């Protein structure tokens, strides 16, 4: 691999770094950053119980199931507000690692061009620029690492700018808002993100309308709907073999090669973006890869966060999902905990959770952290 390409795919491989200069952070999985958030490890689970971002507190956790961790995530806080990204990779870690290293940088550069103003167009352009960069990298590596063409990542991004939350999504990670219900003491769960998974009727219909002459655009295989019988998600960064004809050929694995010519891309990197004006009753946000939602409902997750101390919220959610995964297989959590990566994937997926607590006094004042925050959960294992 060319040296420059290796750098592109390795810059994000730091465990929970807390530094703008990621090259100076430790690469040891037992390292701890400065500030109030300390990295802890429990088997294949890494977590930060509590820390501070520009708009409140946060809690963060990731558990590994695959041989190589395919989830990546980040929290960035600075003059613009707070940026959260959860990247659920598939087919390998390359696309998620690339996005972890480039999406926020592209967002920063594009926002700077408009004097720091954040809009839906800012975020959309950052996504598309990141897609273009990854596609160029695949082209560069085609002769030496063609399998990178079959890696991709779901992306879930939240940006708090002034008093507006922008939510951008590709794939099937999910953002759920916990909002207080009047003076009842209760909290309601409101899903803010849009999911792009062929198991949803609306997504199948969307694909059929985009490809009216292709009766096999979605195929049911073993009880699961897949685009061209291959992949469940209909939007992602990467997966260029489903977007560009020149990458859907040898030497990629035969299972990814389509039997007919590709007239137009089957997958899109254009995110669904919504904006939500933050209200005083909005209490917290749960960003998570689909590995969490496979086992917990929106309401259950919100109740767990609401009913317990803030510290350890993300860790608590991950463990609740693992307990449920163990229960479904009629085994004890303690036994699941002993199963090593790769084999663990038969019981649950990689899971990433970030809980963002909202301090409306800080949000209304437009407060900025004294030191910009940059945290990446990019674990190289």
TrEMBL record:
Q: Which domain of life is it from?
A: Eukaryota
- Identify the keywords attached in UniProt to this record, alphabetized: Hydrolase, Magnesium, Manganese, Metal-binding, Protein phosphatase
Q: Where is the PPM-type phosphatase domain?
A: 57-358
SUPFAM superfamilies the record matches: PP2C-like
Required co-factors = Mn(2+); Mg(2+)
Gene3D superfamilies, alphabetically?
PPM-type phosphatase domain (3.60.40.10)
Task: Quote the catalytic activity from the record.
Answer: O-phospho-L-threonyl-[protein] + H2O = L-threonyl-[protein] + phosphate; O-phospho-L-seryl-[protein] + H2O = L-seryl-[protein] + phosphate
- Which Pfam family would be a valid example here? PP2C
Top-level EC class: hydrolase
Q: What InterPro entries does the record tag this protein with?
A: PP2C (IPR015655), PP2C_BS (IPR000222), PPM-type-like_dom_sf (IPR036457), PPM-type_phosphatase-like_dom (IPR001932)
Q: What Gene Ontology molecular-function terms does this entry list? A: metal ion binding; protein serine/threonine phosphatase activity
For this protein, the Enzyme Commission number is: 3.1.3.16
Q: Give the record's family classification.
A: Belongs to the PP2C family.
Q: What is this protein called?
A: protein-serine/threonine phosphatase
């Amino acid at each position: 691999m060319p040296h420059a390409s290796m750098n592109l795919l390795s810059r994000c491989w730091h465990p929970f770094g807390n530094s703008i200069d990621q090259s100076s952070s430790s690469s040891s999985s037992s390292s701890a950053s400065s500030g109030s958030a300390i990295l802890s490890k429990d088997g294949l689970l890494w977590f930060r119980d509590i820390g501070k971002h520009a708009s409140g507190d946060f809690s963060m956790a990731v558990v590994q199931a695959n041989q190589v961790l395919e989830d990546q995530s980040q929290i960035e806080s600075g003059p613009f507000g707070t940026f959260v990204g959860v990247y659920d990779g598939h087919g390998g870690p390359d696309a998620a690692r690339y996005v972890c290293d480039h999406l926020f940088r592209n967002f920063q550069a594009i926002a700077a061009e408009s004097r720091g103003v954040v809009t839906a167009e800012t975020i959309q352009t950052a996504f598309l620029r990141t897609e273009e960069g990854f596609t160029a990298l695949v082209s560069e590596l085609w002769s030496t690492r063609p399998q990178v063409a079959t890696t991709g990542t779901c992306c879930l991004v939240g940006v708090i700018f002034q008093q507006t939350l922008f939510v951008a999504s590709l794939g099937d990670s999910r953002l759920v808002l916990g909002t207080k219900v009047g003076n009842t003491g209760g909290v309601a769960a409101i899903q803010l993100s849009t999911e792009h998974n062929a198991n949803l009727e609306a997504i199948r219909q969307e694909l059929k309308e985009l490809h009216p002459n292709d009766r096999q655009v979605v195929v049911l295989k073993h009880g699961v709907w897949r685009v061209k019988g291959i992949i469940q998600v209909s939007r992602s960064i990467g997966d260029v073999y489903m977007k560009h004809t020149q990458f859907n050929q040898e030497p990629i694995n035969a299972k990814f090669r389509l039997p007919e010519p590709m007239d137009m891309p089957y997958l899109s990197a254009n995110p669904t973006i919504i904006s939500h004006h933050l209200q005083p009753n909005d209490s917290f946000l749960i960003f998570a890869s689909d590995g969490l939602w496979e086992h917990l409902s929106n309401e259950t997750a919100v109740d767990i966060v609401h009913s317990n101390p803030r510290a350890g919220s993300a860790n608590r959610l991950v463990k609740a999902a693992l307990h449920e995964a163990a229960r479904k297989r009629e085994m004890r959590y303690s036994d699941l905990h002993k199963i090593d990566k790769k084999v663990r994937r038969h019981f649950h997926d990689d899971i990433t959770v970030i809980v963002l607590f909202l301090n409306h006094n800080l949000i209304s004042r437009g407060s900025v952290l004294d030191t910009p925050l940059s945290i990446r959960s990019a674990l190289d294992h």
